[in-house]
Design a protein that fits this description.
The model has no long low-confidence stretch (mean pLDDT about 85). The chain has about 70 residues and is an all-alpha fold. The chain has helices at about 10-20, 25-55, 60-65. The chain is elongated, with a radius of gyration of 19 Å. The N and C termini lie far apart (about 50 Å). The longest helix is centred in the middle third of the chain and has 29 residues, at about 25-55. The protein has a domain at about 25-65.
């Protein structure tokens, strides 16, 4: 199987390298938590930036979350 860069992203290729070391179940759990936190933090930063650029306040976000679909 030939893994070319145009088929897999840089992240995917790096993850394949990590998994080639055959991490233990505990290490796998730590990796999953680390990646989850990384992407959650990245998402939060992007939402905060978009809110700031569009004049959306924390109160606005709270109100949207509390809407019942009306």
């Amino acid at each position: 199987m030939n893994l070319s860069d145009d088929k897999l992203t840089t992240l995917q290729l790096e993850l394949l390298k990590v998994y080639s070391f055959n991490p233990s179940p505990k290490e796998m759990e730590e990796l999953k938590l680390f990646l989850g936190k990384f992407f959650a933090d990245r998402f939060t930063q992007k939402v905060e930036l978009a809110a700031k650029e569009n004049g959306i306040t924390g109160k606005d976000l709270d109100n949207w979350l509390e809407e019942d679909g009306q």
